[in-house]
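Table S4 entry, SusD/RagB family nutrient-binding outer membrane lipoprotein.
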Amino acid sequence: MKKINIVRSWLIGSFVLFGITSCTAGFEDANRPGHETSLEELGRDDYAVSSFITELQNFAFPEQENTYQNTEDLIGNYLGRYMTYVKPDFSVKNYTCFNASDDWKIVPWRDVFAKATSSFNAVAVLTQEEGPMYALALILRAQLMLRFTDTYGPLPIGVEEDANAYSSQEKVYSHLIETLDKAISIITPLVETNPGLVLKADADKVYGGKMNQWCKFANSLKLRMAIRMRFVNQDEAQRIAVEAYKAGVIEQNEDNCAITYIPNGQYKTSVDWGDSRACADLESYMNGFGDPRIYQYFKNTEEYGRRSVVGCRAGANVTNKDLAMKKYSAANIEEDSRGMWMTAAEMTFCRAEGAMLGWDMGGTPGALYNQAVRLSFEQWGVAGQEYYYLENSENTQEYYYDAADGYGGNHAPVSTITVKWDDNDSPERKMERLIVQKWIALFPDGQEGWNEIRRTGYPCVFPVAQSTNGYDLDVPNRIPFDPREMNGNNQENYRKAVEMLGGKDDYAARMWWQNGGNK
């Protein structure tokens, strides 16, 4: 692969992937532990690689409270309709109402994208793009870049002639699958020879160095991507999905992918700071279904009401945080709770959707659907209660009553879907049932919840409580790029990226993989 020389713009050294050596020049000045150790000193032992692997894990799904709030809470958790803000400062300009400030838009690129790429560059140099630690870096990079491209669309990943140029989302997907395949090809022979292989356990806050589990996670990322793209390229999606499943994805909760980071990001934003509370959409579905997981997801409200767990409408005009904190439910999470990246339940729902299309996913749609729900109940500590839940063919989303003197207003149900699987239902009805349950099980990963709403149109969600500022959408299709791009020294590449979006860098431009929902 060609070497790439990076233009020194606001993302110095950021647009990079494997096969790049020249673009890592100067990485010694970025993210170096202690900011004093030289490359020569770092290269004399394993400290360097371990340190940068840990940094990559911290960026792949940020848990540091300020970064978490700006990259996960304000975007995915709110747009995925899991949480919503109760902080008046957030009520005027935000992503939910399609008018976030430029300051908000800058943070993910400045604090995550640029720094993560610098860490990846360091690993690429120190490992000479070989070996299991390089493979692990490729997997972590794929995890991060997938979340970014599913937020913005086109992405600068360093594969174009101009390294600062954006690649189309379709090309980003193809590239990430290629890099995952490369990582899998490095790790698989090692774990076939030694299934219990553990490397750099102290540096690995996710799997403790267990390489077999990293291989399953890499295949699971491929399956996630295959399902995401199946509306736009079903043949390729089927090939990737079946290949990933046959190679081995996450099927049991013991292999769930989660990071240890204290304090947990959602604990800080919802429990400690009190900035976020349960969203009415998730609450109304779960309360309507009589879902026992709701008490694992959320705390009871401090203020007595008609039900124990109460969510707030997305986009509500909250004017008093202290009152709102008491009226609506906080996340039921602890300071040391692990941050979940991927679960067996999600992978089994993906397999159920593939089975609906006739793909070889190791079971029938109904059997896999039921197994996915069972896995989620087990994950959340309510195993055994799923039998009655899965047999319920009557309960639906309930009428949403706002808290007394609340901020969002009441709303009638927007869905009539039930829980029990019915092979005789229409394909669309089956799809809604599957995605609603998948969405519930994906909590608290709001990014993935938002992805499902945009990809399928399900679950049906309440309209935004305030103005959507001219957009006829329930949730944004994407987030506008970092505003510095349109005014900085990368304007031509930015202009080309906007052309890929159809001519506007706004909230309405659609993802490459989107189906007919959320128009």
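The first helix runs from residue 39 to 42.
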